[in-house]
Write a structure and sequence with these properties.
about 500 residues; 2 domains; Methane Monooxygenase Hydroxylase, Chain G, domain 1; about 5% strand; binds zinc ion; 3-stranded mixed sheet; Neurolysin, domain 3; mainly alpha
Length: about 500
């Protein structure tokens, strides 16, 4: 490797150490910190992130980067060297295009907005949050202008979470998905509802739930020598290195599936991080390609695998042994249908895998029109409720169950939501391909054999870490462009059986 790139990499390694140290403080804040530690912790976190930001956006980084660019010019696009410089440039530009005054105004606005949002949600009073949201929308508009865009200001914001993706591309993927989902959900809701009382009424001992999730993570291939699971109110994954990747799960006595699918989801994220190669440690190439690709890994394990029949063929007898009183009398088929119950509901994070994407369309469409000014912040609750009625057939009874439910806007983030559905699309594309390339994949699940799946993901996805955008990665892994069709095919095939929908076919592409 050239000398200039070595300089850049060692400079960046220090910045990355600072960010990982900050991440460890955040992990502790969520998992162990006593409540009164919050003020000191916020100051410590602010100090570390400011130092990391100053170091990263310094002139020195700019100079080292320009020198490294000259050195790797002409090298293969896919090489580690060219990729390192390309990814550093992308992030450097994103961070330096925004004036410091805007960054600090955003951070101040967000901390006030977060407090106001919590109150507004608790009191079901949108008016308390409205002026803060107005400021956040205005700041995001300015942010988009500084970052620059070609067609739509939303492009600039989306690009922070999903590099290389444009609003028009997302629209072209979401529209056919929406057209396919609405008739499917209508057909499902016309059927008698699935009975799942045995999953909500009896109490499920939380210590036994915990044991079950630990078993599940081990079987997925999550390496406990390089990670640990803890309990937290909101499940998340966080890493400080590829050899220290931690997950959390949530335990509720009347919602055993929440812990199981929480661990499967976070386990999917964590396997991706544990699979990031050693050679990329302390560099910008460590980790996952984008938010959408990261979510594809978690959704693949949570939905395609852990909500599937083959998975439960293996695990249901084990779960029954963990909870004999609650499940002994429940036949497999009834349990499997309950796990896959589809029901339009108000809250995104509690939605089933089918209706989930409609929650995302609502947010994506509203964010775009807020940003262009087509929709005023004052009219947001009505617009929100109208879209829930149109897509899901239900109207939220209050704004806490409506436009105040998500934390993202109060953090100042606009442009994040589409990455959830992009993750679902990518997971379906990958899974369809894996099933073709690995014969007997799901037969293996019936014997508790999940290693062939992880081997495929390591080889095709994980080893590339952050080198490529989502589109580049899909080309290299499966030779395809992003496509909504595989997700729709998966839904139509699976739910025709779960809900015995006869004669329902997927509309032609
Ligand atoms: Zn996730």
């Amino acid at each position: 490797m050239g000398e200039k790139l070595e300089h850049l990499k060692s400079h960046m390694a220090t910045t990355i150490d600072l960010m990982h140290a900050a991440a460890l403080l955040s992990w502790d804040q969520e998992v162990y910190m006593p409540p009164q530690g919050v003020e000191a912790r916020s100051q410590q976190l602010a100090t570390l992130s400011t130092l990391a930001h100053q170091m990263f956006t310094s002139d020195e980084t700019g100079e080292l980067l320009a020198e490294a660019e000259a050195e790797v010019a002409g090298m293969d696009y896919d090489s580690d060297e060219a990729s390192n410089v390309r990814v550093t440039r992308r992030e450097y530009d994103q961070h330096t295009k925004l004036p410091t005054s805007l960054v600090s105004e955003m951070s101040l606005t967000a901390s006030q907005a977060f407090a106001a949002w919590r109150q507004a949600r608790e009191k079901q009073d949108y008016a308390l949050f409205e002026p803060h949201l107005q400021k956040i929308v205005d700041l995001n508009r300015r942010k988009a202008d500084y970052l620059g865009y070609e067609a739509h200001p939303y492009d600039a914001l989306l690009g922070l979470f999903e590099p290389g993706m444009t609003t028009a591309q997302v629209e072209a993927l979401f529209e056919p998905l929406k057209q396919g989902l609405i008739p499917l959900i209508q057909a499902i809701t016309a059927q008698p509802q699935v009975d799942d009382h045995f999953l909500t009424e009896p109490e499920y001992d939380v210590e036994r739930q915990w044991e079950f999730t630990m078993l599940l993570l081990r079987k997925m291939g999550y390496d406990f020598r390089r990670g640990r699971q803890d309990k937290a109110p909101h499940p998340f994954t966080i890493n400080f290195a590829n050899r220290d990747v931690r997950v959390t799960t949530r335990l509720h006595p009347h919602r055993p599936l929440s812990a199981i699918f929480g661990s499967a989801h976070e386990g999917g994220h964590a396997l991706y991080e544990q699979g990031s190669p050693d050679k990329f440690e302390r560099s910008v190439l460590a980790g996952g390609a984008s938010m959408g690709v990261h979510e594809s890994q978690s959704r693949l394990w949570e939905n395609q695998v852990s909500r599937g029949k083959a998975f439960w063929s293996y695990y249901y007898p084990i779960l029954q042994a963990f909870f004999p009183e609650q499940l002994e009398g429940v036949p497999f088929w009834e349990f499997y249908r309950a796990v896959n119950k589809v029901e339009p509901s108000f809250i995104r994070v509690e939605a089933d895998e089918v209706t989930y994407n409609l929650h995302i369309f609502v947010r994506f469409e509203l964010e775009k029109s807020l940003l262009t000014g087509e929709l005023s912040v004052a009219d947001l609750p009505d617009a929100w409720n109208a879209k829930y009625q149109a897509y899901l057939g239900i109207t939220p009874p209050n704004d806490a169950l409506g436009c105040l439910q998500d934390v993202h806007w109060s953090h100042g983030d606009i442009g994040y939501f589409p990455t959830y559905t992009l993750g679902n699309l990518i997971s379906a594309q990958l899974y369809a391909q894996i099933k073709q390339e690995v014969p007997g994949l799901e037969d293996g699940y019936r014997n508790g054999e999940f290693a062939p799946l992880l081997t495929w993901l390591r080889e095709k996805i994980h080893r590339h870490a952050r080198k490529f955008t989502a589109a580049e990665l899909l080309q290299r892994a499966i030779g395809q462009e992003l496509d909504a069709r595989p997700l729709l095919e998966y839904f139509y095939q699976k739910y025709a059986e779960v809900y015995q929908l006869e004669g329902l076919t997927l509309p032609a592409a």
